[in-house]
Amino acid sequence: xxxxxxxxxxxxxxxxxxxxxxxxxxxxxxxxxxxxxxxxxxxxxxxxxxxxxxxxxxxxxxxxxxxxxxxxxxxxxxxxxxxxxxxxxxxxxxxxxxxxxxxxxxxxxxxxxxxxxxxxxxxxxxxxxxxxxxxxxxxxxxxxxxxxxxxxxxxxxxxxxxxxxxxxxxxxxxxxxxxxxxxxxxxxxxxxxxxxxxxxxxxxxxxxxxxxxxxxxxxxxxxxxxxxxxxxxxxxxxxxxxxxxxxxxxx
Length: 251
What we know:
- The chain is α/β, with parallel strands linked by helices.
- It has two domains: about 5-80, 2-Layer Sandwich (Alpha-Beta Plaits), CATH 3.30.70.20; about 105-250, Rossmann fold (3-Layer(aba) Sandwich).
- It has six helices and 13 strands.
- The chain has helices at about 20-25, 70-80, 160, 165-170, 185-200, 215-230; strands spanning about 5-10, 30-35, 35-40, 60-65, 105-110, 120, 120-125, 130, 150-155, 175-180, 205-210, 235-240, 245-250.
- It has a five-stranded mixed beta sheet. It has a two-stranded antiparallel sheet with strand order 1-4. Strands 2-3 form a two-stranded antiparallel ribbon.
- The longest helix is centred in the C-terminal third of the chain and has 14 residues, at about 185-200.
- It is globular.
- It starts with a strand and ends with a strand.
- The relative contact order is 0.14.
C-alpha cells in the first residue's frame, strides 16, 4: 500500500524530451512518451536519483510523497518485457510471401553500376546505401553486414538536413538510424551494446542534429559502448538545421 517515501518528479514544462535520463535509470522507471520524459510507474522508481545529473534542463527532482513501495522484482520484469524477446531478431511485422517481412529482412545491397537519369540538365546521384534494414530497431544484432563494419549511427533527421549525406558520410559505411527523442532508447541501449559486443566493429560515426534533444543519440552510443566493454574509435558530428557541419569531436 502507498507510503511516504522519496520518488522522482519530472517537470514537463522544463523537459525537452532529450532522453538523457532514460539510460541512467537502471530500473526502467523513466520513458520518453509523446516527447516528454515520464515516470511510468511508482513501483519502478527506487528514489535514489541516478537520473538527476543527466538532465540538462533541471527537470528532474526527488520529492517525498505518498507512493507505492519500490518493487525490485516488478522492475526487473518490466525491463525484460521492454526488450525484444529475441534481440537478434527484428521486431515482428506481417509476413510477405514465404520470406518473412521484406521490410526487415537483413540484406547486403550489392554494388551496381550507377545509372544516370537525365532530369532536364541534371542527373541523379547514385545511392551509397549498402545495407538493409537501416532502422536500428529492425537491425538484427548479428546481421552479416555488421561484422567488421564501419558503423554510421545517424539521427533520422540528418539525411534530410544535410544535402550531401550519401557522398560525405554514408559511402563505405553500414548505416543504422534512430530518433533519441521519439524511439525507445532503453531498447536501443541494450541492442547497441550487443551489436558492439558480438561484432568486430571497426569504427563508429555518430551524426546528430544541433537541437538539444538529438544529443541523446551521443549519450546512447556512449552508454552502449560502456555496457559492451568495448573500446571502438568513435567520431561525433553535429549537423545544423540549415545543413551545415557545426562540430566534429571524438568520444
